[in-house]
Write a structure and sequence with these properties.
138 residues, mainly alpha, two-stranded antiparallel ribbon
Length: 138
């Protein structure tokens, strides 16, 4: 398996675990408990900020869901040479603005959290991929 295939597969498995967790609640409760615990150190899991799938909460919030699925999408396009830093900065601005203004001024909505996460995850994975697989590291 080539480097890109392994990279995409790893992110795909991560995203699959996110989607499978609520499905396991009724079919394999111990598995779902394990996955909720597994994801808890990396996400606050606040129900109001999370999506629900078949009546059960995803193990990560809407923003984290966007970040991981954005990373999965971006992993198909990432290159060994990272784009200019301005690409990442531009992609992070909506996330920072949404998250920052949510702290003091307003409550964001899950669709906006998802969108800003998708954009940030899509961009960030270009730099992760380049850092792992650039010609100097192979």
């Amino acid at each position: 398996m080539k480097s890109r295939s392994k990279f995409v597969a790893a992110i795909g498995v991560w995203c699959l675990l996110i989607v499978l967790t609520p499905l396991l609640v009724e079919r394999a409760p111990l598995g779902s408990v394990f996955l909720y615990l597994f994801f808890s150190p990396i996400c606050h899991q606040i129900p109001e900020r999370s999506f629900f799938f078949f009546g059960h909460q995803l193990p990560v919030c809407a923003r984290c869901t966007g970040i991981y699925f954005g990373a999965l999408l971006g992993s198909f396009f990432a290159q060994k040479k990272a784009p200019p830093r301005l690409f990442l900065i531009a992609a992070l601005i909506p996330l920072v603005l949404d998250g920052g203004t949510q702290l003091f001024f307003r409550e964001s909505i899950n669709v906006l959290r998802l969108g800003t996460g998708l954009l940030a995850g899509f961009a960030a994975i270009f730099y992760v991929y380049a850092g792992l697989f650039n010609s100097e590291n192979e």
